[in-house]
Amino acid sequence: MNGVRPNILAMAGYTPGEQLNDPAIIKLNTNENPYPPSPRVFEAIQTALTSNSLRKYPQPLGDTFRKAAGKVLGVDPDSILIGNGSDDLLTILTRAFVPEGGLMASPTPSYILYRSLAEIQGARFEAVPFTQDWNLPADWGRPANLTFLPNPNSPSGTLVLPAEIIRLANVVAPSPLVLDEAYADFADWNRLELLAEISNLIITRSFSKAYSLAGIRFGFAIARPEIVSELVKVKDSYNCDVLSLAAATAAIVDREYFLGVRTKILATRARMAVELTKLGFAVTPSQANFLWCRPNRPAKPIYEELKQRKILVRYMNYPIGPTGMPEGRYDGLRISVGTDAEIDRLLEELGSIL
Asked: Using CA atoms in the order 137, 142, 143, 148, what is the torsion angle rounded to 10 degrees?
C-alpha cells in the first residue's frame, strides 16, 4: 500500500481479547471487573449528562481528578498525568522517550502491546526472559530508551520485589523505568513510595480493572512533576472526555465501595486457585484479578471447548517462556476472576471437559 510506513506494513499489530456481542457469554478473558462501578459513578455521569458540560471541552489536564487522586494516594496532583486508558499513557511515553531506531525493553512473557508500540515507533525491542520463579534476571544490564516492567505481571500475576525494581531502575538510568501497575489494586502491596527515591521511575495505573470502568477508558501516570510537564506536550489536547473524568473522580473517592469489591475478588481468586489445581492445572500464585493456568495437556483445545460452551478465557502463546522452562513456545490459559456464579459454571464445564 503506497504511503504506509514500511515498519507498519511489516508488523502484525496488537490483538485485543475477544469481545463477542452475546449476552449469554461468560467473559473471563480480558480481566474486566465482574461487579458494577460505584453508585457514585452513575450519579456523576448523570450529572454530567444533565448539566451544560457536554457542549464544552473537558479539562485538558483533568485538574479535578488530579486533586482527588492526589489526596487519596498521597501524591502531588502535579505529578499525575491523565490518559484514555493506561494504553494511551504507554503510547505517550513511547512517543516522548523513544527515537526512531531506539531501543525498548520489557521482561517476557508479558504484555504483548509493548512490542507493538516499539514497532509503531520504528524502534528495536528486547524481550528479557523472566527467571523460572518470575523474577528479573540478575544479568539484565543493558539500558534502553524506555523499559516497561508490569507489576503485577500479565499473564503470570506475579510481583517483582522492591529491591529488584530499584536495581533495574539504576541499570537503565537516566532513561525511564515504567512500572505498569494496571493490576496493583489487587496486590498485597504497590510501590508508589519508590517515586520519592527513584528519579527515573514512572508508574501507570488503570481504571479498567479494580474500578469497573473498562468501558469508560481512563488511566493515569504518576511521575515527578518535571517529567509530567514534558509528557503534557506529547498527549492529545483533550485526551479524556467529560464523562470519563467525572466517572474516574467519583470512583477513586469511594474507598468503601472499592475495598468491598476488592475483598470479594480476592476471595474468589483464592477459591479458583484451589479448584483449578484440583483439576490438574499448574496455577501460578497471583497478585492480580486473574490466574495463569497451564494444563497437563495442550491448552488451546480447552480454550476452544470452553468457547463452544459460551465461556471465554484467554489462550496465550509466547515465543519463549521464563529461563529454565522447556524449549519451544510457552502457552496456557489466563482466566479472569468472575463472580462466584460465573466461576462455579467455569469449574463445572472444565470438570466435564477434563
From this structure: -40
What HEC string does the chain produce?
Answer: CCCCCHHHHHCCCCCCCCCCCCCCCEEECCCCCCCCCCHHHHHHHHHHHHCCHHHCCCCCCCHHHHHHHHHHHCCCHHHEEEECCHHHHHHHHHHHHCCCCCEEEEEECCCCHHHHHHHHHCCEEEEEECCCCCCCCCCCCCCCCEEEEECCCCCCCCCCCHHHHHHHHHHHCCCCEEEECCCHHHCCCCCHHHHHCCCCEEEEEECCCCCCCCCCCCEEEECCHHHHHHHCCCCCCCCCCHHHHHHHHHHHHCHHHHHHHHHHHHHHHHHHHHHHHHCCCEEECCCCCEEEEECCCCHHHHHHHHHHCCEEEEEEEECCCCCCCCCCCEEEEEEECCCHHHHHHHHHHHHHHC
Surface-to-core class of residue 238, CB atoms within 10 Å of its CB (0-12 exposed, 13-18 middle, 19+ buried): middle
Strand partners, 317: 331
pLDDT band at 122 (very low <50, low <70, confident <90, very high): very high
Do 26 and 345 contact (CB within 8 A), yes or no?
A: yes
Cell numbers for 326? 522447556
End-to-end CA distance of the chain: 47
Q: Is the pLDDT of residue 19 over 80?
A: no
Count CB neighbours of 286 within 10 A: 29
- Quick one: which of 289, 229, 293 has its CA closest to 261? 289
Q: Cα dist. 290→6, 34, 82 in Å?
A: 37, 12, 25
C-beta of residue 162 within 8 angstroms of C-beta of residue 156? no
C-alpha 61/C-alpha 43 separation (Å) is 22
pLDDT band at 1 (very low <50, low <70, confident <90, very high): low
Q: How far apart are the C-alpha atoms of 146 and 124, rounded to whole Å?
A: 11
